[in-house]
Amino acid sequence: MAFVDSHTHLYDMKKGYALPPDVFPVVVGYSHGSNQKTVEVARRGGYPFVLGIAPQTTIKEGISRIDEWVEFIRTSRPNAIGEVGLDYKWAQTQEHVDGEKRVFARMVALAREMDLPLVIHSRDNPNDNGLPKYAVEDILGMVGGMRFLMHFYSGTEEQALRIIGMGGLISMAHMRSKERRKVINSVPLDRLLVESDSPYIGRTPESVREAVGYIAEVKGLDAKMVEDATARNAMKFFGFRL
Ligand SMILES: [Zn+2]
After folding, report:
1. What are the Cα distances from residue 110, in Å, to 74, 78, 115, 146, 234?
2. pTM of the entire predicted model
3. Distance, CA 197 to ligand 1 centroid (Å)?
4. Cα 225 to ligand 1 centroid, rounded to whole Å
5. What is the DSSP letter of 12?
6. What is the DSSP letter of 145?
7. Region 12-40 average pLDDT
8. What is the distance in A from the centroid of ligand 1 to the CA of 120?
């Protein structure tokens, strides 16, 4: 098999970048512009792909063209809807929060209609500004009964257990921390995926090797076993074969 990077913005990599043969990418968009590039790169390489309108996009670009954006996603037949969700760090006003929620609800409805899983971005509000704090709480209230993956997971162990209790999956990048260690320890291997979120978090998709190594180390497992398990989990979730 191969390492499966469950989340890369491959179209944003430096020109001339070539994937190594043992890393297989799932290409992910976050806006109409990046969704178009995602489809192009994924079709060229034969990769699975994920299309959606992310909460940050909602704030940066407004939502006046949302119908056109949704139509593009619908007709492009992605493997999942994402990245979508709620980002309460980006939201500076109640209007931003409401706009994010409206678009996320629309993305959830689209996923239901197309019978696709969701790739979710969630970020809590670190400030004490009277705005909602826990994006993950609101997200979990909106995705009941659906298949979903929490991308670039950075929440607590307790939240992770609630997520898997609802049938969700968790995708880990390569970064290390005390809380991440606890999360990896508590979440069973059949619920874990790895990702680079490259070029923004990991520089390239190869950083999933490190993420696999970290999981293997924390769980006391063979790295090859973790590589295969996370690849299988990704294939099942996104519906592709290697
Ligand atoms: Zn991303």
Report:
1. 8, 11, 8, 12, 21
2. 0.96
3. 5
4. 26
5. G
6. T
7. 96
8. 9
Measured in angstroms, how far is the CA atom of residue 153 from the centroid of ligand 1? 11
List strand residue ranges (DSSP E) for the chain, in order.
3-8, 23-28, 49-51, 80-87, 118-123, 148-150, 169-172, 192-194
User: Which tens digit of pLDDT belongs to each residue from 137-165?
Assistant: 999 999 999 999 999 999 999 999 999 99
Residues 189 and 219: their CA atoms lie apart, in Å, by: 9
Helices and strands of the chain, counted as H and E runs: 9, 8
Q: How far apart (Å, rounded) are the C-alpha atoms in residues 216 and 210? A: 10
Per residue in 72-105, pLDDT (tens digit) is 999 999 999 999 999 999 999 999 999 999 999 9
Give the integer Cα–Cα distance in Å for 95 and 230.
Answer: 38
Query: Domains in the chain, ordered, with CATH?
Result: 3-238 (3.20.20.140)
Question: 235, 208, 216: which is closest to 5 by C-alpha?
Answer: 208
